[in-house]
């Protein structure tokens, strides 16, 4: 199994760096551009989707009060929990598949913690300047300049956190009303609390805790060591090519016998790392796979006139001189699991009944009607789960001598639930036992979807 080194081990090593505040240096390159694209898509989805409307309601809304989850034309209820669990399984298998294939690309490019941390770093740079200025500012005593820059940074962080929190709460309570209520100071105590809570959580996580969330709070970093194998593509330093490292000037020609590798020990890969690790120490649990060190090292290789790729996506097998096996049993296994779960989920969504029926029997025993029939009462709870208004036929099926007494049809708006009191009567002489099983049925008038049935019992005299 691939061996990981942890920050703790590194900090305990002789000459370790200890715990310092990490001030990553900003750097551009191919992978940063890819990260920006991933972040931009995520931001557009997160901040944009909440404002979309669909059929006169918010397109994506987890309505906790009504216990309904709307996602465009589909609505899910608590009884659809199994389908929502399937979505979680799809995400888990997707994550396992991608981790085996290419390590922590999810963390580096699309994880909310990473993306928000990059945004907070951008705000920090805007207020306090580049890495060297920020380090100087950290060391400087209190001054008007320092206080103003710090205030500006924290102000920006709080604004981003507040917008993030309002958007998040807006997925659980209609966003337009929420924003109106917050602006007019009429928001409920509950909504105000959650906006405050998520503002504080975002500010703390992305502003203060940053990489510590990845180190100590995220379980994914812990179990990735059991997922990554010798063929996984992970950000790696090519030790055979880079060592022995040694400084030299830009463009300086190397003597054939200087004995040095390609690493000029410029430390740029360490300075750009958001988790403050040195990729040259080997594969580490704290590496979030952001590839900032690849961009940094490639630029140095360009300046020195060496080939790119001293730090690159490579497998352990490739670095040891072998050939990476792309198709391997674990990767294929997770791919098949992923595809099967997606197929099962799609089938489940397509075939789920568009109407639900629950039957509650009246608590009383039985009654005799004026004409001597035995009568039992029931409450039929019918819900239209379709996205359009529907007409339904109500009936009790399989009653040999009994008769259904109640409305024969019902019109329901999308998502509407109705409670219909009905009864069933039997002539006393036709009851073969004191306890007869009966079945209610609701079917669509336009024959869309299969009829839905629900069983109950009919009680008579012993
Ligand atoms: S950026 Fe490249 S050359 Fe510079 S220290 Fe890192 S690995 Fe060595
Ligand atoms: S070592 Fe490289 S890939 Fe890993 S977190 Fe640091 S900069 Fe990102």
- DSSP summary, beta strand count: 16
Structural class: alpha+beta
Total helices: the number is: 16
- Looking at this structure, what is the CATH superfamily of the domain at 355-459? Immunoglobulins
What is the mean pLDDT? 89
CATH topology of the domain at 355-459: Immunoglobulin-like
Low-confidence regions: 6-18
CATH architecture of the domain at 355-459: Sandwich
Rg value: 32 Å
Shape: elongated
Bound chemical compounds? iron/sulfur cluster
Helix content: 40-55%
Specify the CATH class of the domain at 355-459.
Answer: Mainly Beta
The fraction of residues in strands falls at 15-25%
For the report, how would you describe the main beta sheet? 5 strands, antiparallel
Termini separation comes to 71 Å
Task: Summarize the structure in words.
Residues 253-282 form the 4Fe-4S ferredoxin-type domain. Keywords: 4Fe-4S, Electron transport, Iron, Iron-sulfur, Membrane, Metal-binding, Transmembrane, Transmembrane helix, Transport. GO terms for molecular function: 4 iron, 4 sulfur cluster binding; metal ion binding. It holds the Pfam family Fer4_18. With 462 residues, the chain is of the alpha+beta class. The chain has a domain at 355-459: Immunoglobulins (Immunoglobulin-like). It has helices at residues 7-12, 30-49, 81-102, 105-109, 112-128, 131-139, 144-170, 175-183, 189-209, 211-217, 219-227, 239-242, 268-271, 292-304, 316-319, 329-351; strands at residues 53-54, 57-58, 60-63, 68-71, 74-76, 234-237, 311-314, 355-361, 367-368, 374-384, 390-397, 403-405, 409-412, 417-426, 435-444, 452-459. Strands 8, 9, 10, 12 and 14 form a 5-stranded antiparallel sheet that branches. Strands 13-11-15-16 form a 4-stranded antiparallel sheet, with no helix packed on it. The protein has a 3-stranded antiparallel sheet with strand order 3-4-5, with no helix packed on it. A hairpin with a 5-residue loop joins strand 9 (367-368) and strand 10. The protein starts with 6 loop residues before the first helix and ends with a strand.
């Amino acid at each position: 199994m691939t061996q990981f080194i942890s920050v703790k081990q590194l900090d305990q090593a002789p000459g370790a760096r200890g715990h310092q505040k990490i001030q990553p240096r900003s750097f551009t390159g191919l992978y940063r551009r890819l990260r920006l694209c991933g972040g931009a898509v995520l931001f557009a989805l997160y901040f944009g989707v909440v404002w979309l409307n669909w059929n006169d309601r918010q397109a994506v809304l987890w309505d906790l009060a009504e216990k309904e989850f709307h996602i465009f034309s589909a609505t899910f209820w608590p009884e659809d929990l199994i389908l929502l669990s399937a979505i979680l399984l799809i995400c888990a298998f997707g994550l396992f598949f991608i981790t085996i294939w290419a390590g922590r690309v999810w963390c580096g490019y699309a994880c909310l913690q990473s993306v928000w941390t990059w945004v907070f770093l951008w705000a920090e740079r805007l207020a306090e300047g580049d890495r060297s200025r920020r380090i100087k500012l950290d060391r400087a005593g209190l001054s008007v300049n320092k206080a103003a820059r710090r205030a500006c940074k924290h102000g920006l962080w709080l604004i981003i956190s507040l917008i993030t929190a309002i958007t998040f709460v807006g997925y659980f309570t209609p966003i337009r009303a929420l924003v109106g209520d917050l602006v007019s100071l009429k928001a409920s105590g509950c909504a105000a609390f959650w906006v405050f809570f998520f503002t504080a959580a975002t500010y703390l996580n992305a502003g203060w805790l940053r990489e510590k969330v990845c180190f100590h709070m995220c379980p994914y970093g812990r179990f990735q060591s059991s997922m990554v194998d010798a063929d996984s593509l992970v950000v790696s330093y090519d030790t055979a090519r880079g060592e022995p490292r040694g400084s030299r000037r830009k463009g300086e020609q190397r003597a054939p016998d200087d004995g040095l590798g390609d690493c000029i020990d410029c430390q740029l890969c360490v300075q750009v790392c958001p988790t403050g690790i040195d990729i040259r120490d080997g594969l580490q649990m704290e590496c979030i796979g952001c590839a900032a060190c690849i961009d940094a090292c490639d630029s140095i290789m360009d300046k020195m006139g060496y080939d790119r790729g001293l730090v690159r996506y490579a497998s352990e097998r490739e670095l040891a001189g072998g050939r990476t096996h792309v198709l391997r049993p674990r990767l294929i296994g997770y791919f098949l699991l992923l595809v099967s779960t997606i197929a099962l989920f799609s089938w489940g969504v397509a075939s789920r009944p568009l109407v639900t029926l629950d039957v509650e029997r009246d608590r009383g025993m039985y009654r005799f009607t004026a004409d001597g029939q035995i009568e039992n009462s029931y409450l039929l709870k019918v819900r239209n789960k379709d996205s359009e208004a529907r007409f339904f036929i109500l009936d009790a099926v399989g009653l040999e001598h009994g008769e259904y007494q109640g409305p024969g049809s019902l019109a329901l708006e999308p998502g509407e639930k109705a409670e219909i009191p009905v009864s069933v009567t039997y002539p006393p002489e036709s009851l073969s036992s004191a306890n007869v099983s009966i079945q209610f049925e609701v079917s669509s008038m336009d024959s869309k979807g299969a009829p839905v049935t629900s069983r109950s019992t009919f009680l008579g005299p012993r």
